[in-house]
């Protein structure tokens, strides 16, 4: 299956993508992984992306699209893939359609993870990270430390990352609504969208997604 996963920040796309890719035995292709792999390997596209990033500029669509196209052509993606974080806008969605059409392929489904905006803010703004080890992550509501502000694992100080502040989260949501959300209508016109609630436990959301894909 060839699937696009879309949803606002804090919807749990990365978590769901990993579970779904494993259940469907297809590669999970995320924008972040594409950039890291191309930059670390020193590919032509990676060097281009790094130049824009080092200058503090956004990486142009054509560079991101090129990376995604290269990745989708790898042997492990022959039976499908799950795209997470791409496409980010309608222009990228149109380019993806063209790239797939050129290979006589098409998408099978677009999973839209739906989460109320206030819940997104609550999920992200409530995160607290250990200063000693960023792998130690807590949440003031869902996974609170035994002692407020103190890591249960190593006793380090817990802090809120700047990009996890409520103000920043709401700005990220504005960008999502303006740039990425329109792709849902774009794909809905093609009859590809399945909207599922991303509330509840991880396995419950995965089960809803798998059920939607069966249909």
UniProtKB/TrEMBL annotation:
Primary location group: cytoplasm
Domain remark in the UniProt entry: Consists of three domains, a large central CORE domain and two small peripheral domains, NMPbind and LID, which undergo movements during catalysis. The LID domain closes over the site of phosphoryl transfer upon ATP binding. Assembling and dissambling the active center during each catalytic cycle provides an effective means to prevent ATP hydrolysis.
Keyword Transport: no
PANTHER family linked: NUCLEOTIDE KINASE
Function: Catalyzes the reversible transfer of the terminal phosphate group between ATP and AMP. Plays an important role in cellular energy homeostasis and in adenine nucleotide metabolism.
Ranges where the record places region NMP: 30-59
Positions contributing to ATP binding: 10-15, 127, 137-138, 200
The keyword Cytoplasm is annotated on this UniProt entry: yes
Name the UniProt record assigns to this protein: Adenylate kinase
Reactions catalysed: AMP + ATP = 2 ADP
GO cellular component term of the entry, any: cytoplasm
Location within or outside the cell: Cytoplasm
EC primary class: transferase
Protein family membership: Belongs to the adenylate kinase family.
Pathway annotation from the record: Purine metabolism; AMP biosynthesis via salvage pathway; AMP from ADP: step 1/1
Domain of life: Bacteria
GO biological process, one term: AMP salvage
GO molecular function: AMP kinase activity; ATP binding
């Amino acid at each position: 299956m060839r699937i696009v996963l879309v949803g606002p920040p804090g919807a749990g796309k990365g978590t769901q993508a990993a579970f779904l890719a494993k259940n469907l035995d297809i590669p999970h292709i995320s924008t972040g992984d594409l950039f890291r792999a191309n930059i670390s390997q020193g590919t032509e596209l990676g060097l281009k992306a790094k130049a824009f990033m080092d200058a503090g500029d956004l990486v142009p669509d054509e560079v991101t699209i090129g990376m995604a196209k290269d990745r989708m052509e790898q042997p492990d993606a022959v039976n499908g893939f799950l795209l997470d974080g791409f496409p980010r806008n309608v222009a990228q969605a149109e380019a993806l359609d063209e790239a797939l059409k050129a290979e006589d392929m098409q998408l099978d489904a677009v999973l839209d993870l739906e989460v109320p905006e206030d819940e997104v803010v609550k999920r992200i703004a409530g995160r607290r990270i250990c200063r000693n080890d960023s792998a130690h992550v807590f949440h003031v509501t869902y996974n609170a430390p035994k002692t407020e502000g103190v890591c249960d694992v190593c006793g380090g100080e817990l802090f809120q990352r700047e990009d996890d502040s409520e103000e920043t989260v709401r700005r990220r949501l504005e960008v999502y609504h303006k740039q990425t959300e329109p792709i849902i209508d774009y794909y809905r016109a093609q009859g590809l969208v399945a909207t599922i609630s991303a509330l509840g436990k991880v396995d419950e959301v995965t089960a809803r997604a798998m059920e939607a894909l069966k249909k």
